[in-house]
Design goal:
single chain; alpha+beta; 7 helices; 11 strands
Length: 227
């Protein structure tokens, strides 16, 4: 009997995933698809990552996940077969990438054989004229309370992404908390939103962010180009 390893399981996941990733994803079509198919995240501004999660959970894995998803605090990681995986998207135009809640990652690593991150990278086109934002706000039923609050604070609005063209998938595998701590010490990873507050005044929980993706090569299980 062949023992399933994180790398062999990843190969199975990618065999399901890669043939179904389109060369380009239009933001409006992706949002309408999520809305039509019942995703609760179609209203989210950062639609690319939620579209990727929806694609995997609804269309690529027969019957969904083979086991109950791994949940730690308020964080539920996206995919589970024998091992636990989290799905992320990354625009090539940006350097950093937020992974997930720091305490949830650490708890998962204490309770599971490891935790993998499957990252879909690609080129993005931005909503330079603001038309996409207006369209999405209208679809959602108008300007949200959060957006109104942003305007009152004179805070700048983040540019929306209107198209995503995948270029690669990278998967990173961690087996213990000490590996995360080592990467934090070396500046490969960093804490994000430490000391920041939500709109209700409560402190946000720190998240882990990739600062130097090249420094994670030792944890890379596989890197695949998408053409």
């Amino acid at each position: 009997m062949v023992t399933m390893t994180p790398k062999s399981e990843l190969e199975q996941i990618l065999a399901d995933l890669l043939p179904n990733i389109p060369g380009s994803i239009d933001g409006k079509k992706a949002i309408l698809q999520m809305k039509r198919e019942g995703s609760p995240n179609w209203k989210q501004m950062e639609w690319i990552g939620f579209w990727f999660e929806h694609l995997v959970s609804k269309h690529l894995i027969p019957g969904g996940n083979s086991q109950e998803l791994s949940k730690h605090g308020k964080t539920t990681f996206d995919l589970r077969r024998k091992y636990v995986w989290d799905l992320k998207s990354h625009p090539n135009q940006t350097k950093s990438l937020i992974l997930n809640d720091k305490s949830a990652i650490e708890e998962c690593l204490r309770e599971e054989p490891g935790l993998g991150f499957i990252i879909l990278s690609g080129d993005v086109e931005y909503d330079e004229a603001g038309e996409f934002k207006k369209w999405h706000d209208t679809l959602k039923g108008g300007t949200s309370a959060y957006e109104k609050s942003r305007v009152l604070r004179n805070a700048p609005s983040r540019r929306r992404k209107v198209r995503f063209s995948p270029t690669s998938i990278d998967a990173y595998w961690f087996t213990k908390v000490s590996e995360i701590e080592k990467c934090l010490t070396e500046g490969i990873l960093a804490e994000f939103q430490t000391g920041m507050r939500n709109s209700n005044g409560k402190f946000r929980k720190p998240k882990i962010m990739i600062k130097d993706i090249a420094g994670l090569d030792v944890y890379n299980l596989k890197s695949v180009s998408i053409k």
